[in-house]
Design brief:
TIM Barrel; about 20% strand; globular
């Protein structure tokens, strides 16, 4: 299987200058999220993505001209309204799509959230690392880094792009000493190979900033969105991972990471 031609965006794509400066282009907002960072969180799904993951559950977030606009200050006020529910650990997570397409706007948002005493988290595919992204990371309390595959060839097959930038982002985050979680989608036949699970573990086993790795079992919940967008879903014959596969992956990762969670 190959990623169809024309699906990919340039790596340096930046929506900061193409859209209204005080507004984020978003897909949706979820309140009381419990799977996107520590505690209870308000999760903002940003619009636009450079990856073309074959198993993407939200392909409607890919289009950089899709979604709706919401002002940065309106998002801050929504977060303030939700703040009593956040407790000591919760806060706001920006997911996607890929948030770093709007990196300068998010820097402004995260600074405002910190002014209000609200914790920030960023769920990123790690496609881009430059000075603007580094500045955003500095205001990011938790980086949730999606590791699609440790092997570059398999990463290409799954996403259409190399994993070189992803590993550089992880290395950079480690150098800052700020917290990071890894997230791994477990797809039978695609990302469950034992040798590569061990390779991933060995690559990250000495990182001190990684607090946990989260296993996200593959599912077919997004297939209807592909059909609605009139796009062919290439993994329609791939089943969700069995309990045996999940347990095997969990056991391997526990050899290398201090906490392993199955979402």
């Amino acid at each position: 299987m190959q990623i169809p031609e024309g699906w990919l965006l340039p790596q340096e794509t930046n929506l900061d200058h193409a859209d209204r400066p005080d507004y984020l282009r978003i897909h949706s907002i979820e309140t009381f999220g419990t799977h996107d960072g520590p505690g209870i969180r308000m999760v903002v799904f940003a619009q636009g993505c450079q990856f073309r993951c074959l198993y993407c559950a939200n392909p409607d977030t890919w289009d950089i001209y899709g979604g709706t606009f919401k002002s940065i200050e309106e998002i801050v006020q929504l977060a303030i309204h939700e703040k009593p529910y956040f407790g000591k650990q919760g806060g706001v997570t920006i997911s996607g799509g890929e948030p770093t397409l709007q990196r300068n706007k998010l820097l402004t948002l995260f600074k405002r959230l910190h002014e209000e005493g609200i914790n920030t988290a960023l769920d990123s595919n790690g496609r881009l690392l430059n000075h603007e992204v580094e500045a955003l990371f500095e205001e990011t309390d938790y980086l949730l880094l999606d590791i699609k595959h440790i092997n570059d060839d398999w990463h290409h097959k799954l996403t259409g792009v190399s994993n070189n930038s992803v590993l550089k982002v992880a290395e950079y985050r480690e150098s800052t000493g700020k917290p990071m979680w890894l997230r791994y989608v477990l797809v039978p036949g695609w990302s469950d190979q034992e040798e590569y699970l061990h390779e991933l573990g060995r690559h990250f086993q000495h990182y001190k900033t990684i607090e946990k790795i989260e296993i996200q079992p593959y599912h077919l919940l997004g297939v209807q969105k592909w059909e609605a967008l009139k796009m062919e879903y290439l993994l329609k014959d791939v089943p969700s991972p069995s309990r045996e596969i999940i347990n095997k992956t969990e056991a391997i990762f526990k050899q290398y990471f201090k906490e392993v969670k199955v979402n």
